[in-house]
Design goal:
The complex is a heterodimer of chains A (223) and B (79). With 223 residues, chain A is an alpha/beta fold. Chain A contains five helices and eleven strands; from the N terminus they run βαββαβαββββαβββα. In chain A, the strands form two sheets. A nine-stranded mixed beta sheet of chain A has the order 2-1-3-4-11-10-9-6-7, with helices on both faces. A two-stranded antiparallel sheet of chain A has the order 5-8. In chain A, β10 and β11 form a beta hairpin. Chain A starts with a strand and ends in a 5-residue tail after the last helix. Chain B has a three-stranded antiparallel beta sheet with strand order 2-1-3, with helices on one face. The model of chain B has no long low-confidence stretch (mean pLDDT 96). The chains are: A alpha/beta (223), B alpha+beta (79). At the A-B interface, loops of A face α1 of B.
Amino acid sequence: MKVAIIVFPGTNCEIDTQYAYTKLGQEALLVWHKEKSLPDGVDLVVLPGGFSYGDYLRSAAIAKFSPIMEAVTSYAKSGGYVLGICNGFQMLLEMGLLPGAMKRNLNVHFISKYHHLKVESNDNQFLRHLKVGQIVNIPIAHGEGNYFIDEDGLQELKSNNQIILTYCDASGSALNPNGSVGNIAGICNINKNVFGLMPHPERAIETVLGSNDGLAMLEGFVA
Amino acid sequence: MNITVNVQLKQGVLDPQGKAVHHALGSLGFNNVNDVRIGKQIVLQMDEKEPEIARESAKKMCEELLANTVIEDYEIVVS
């Protein structure tokens, strides 16, 4: 499998993501945002975490105008798999490839810690190796992860099984670190080829570093 | 021509920053504040003589970049 990891000025999780996919035995290429096209034969595009353009104006507000994004948008619209992690999730919202928007965390703090998540749906490529109701432990690191969507939008996400991960405690009870509507940590689009989540699975791939729960998630895209 | 764009979270969308500042004002003894909303002000110096064209142009900027209309409202002031 060939993975294209898009790098913007201010991105800082591209090497972790590349390391994770290399560990999974896949070819993972870093693609600079000024490129106009994706490498041939790409099977997955990752928009990694970080602070693209310094989070100026709003998180991810400016990245959507980078030259590569036109190619990413048409790749997503033609059914290609796109995974946005943290700042990458914010980009997918800003681009309109996923519904909703991000606000400042409810407590206005930048939160960086391990957090438990519950798998809400696995009828998708990303979480197909996990079980519904399974609890995973994955780091979060964000200041604007307070997911907002209106009531109609939330109902739509629920009825289409688009909520993929929610925040919880170790026993699976709801625990909300940032104020997100419906404790939402990650969603996908209706066609289930575009995924966004605030937690960082690429930071949870070595047990010696606390958790390898992220590996099974990232492996979902590996054929 | 100066165009001032004020961007603010929509009514009904909880403003975490405003809430934190409201709380801080309360702890300073300012108990006469009912609500605090925090927004952004963006000042554009435009090379444009027609106020209506400038306003129309600023509106497009807001829709495409300056505001996230999922959660934010914007106001355009031409001066």
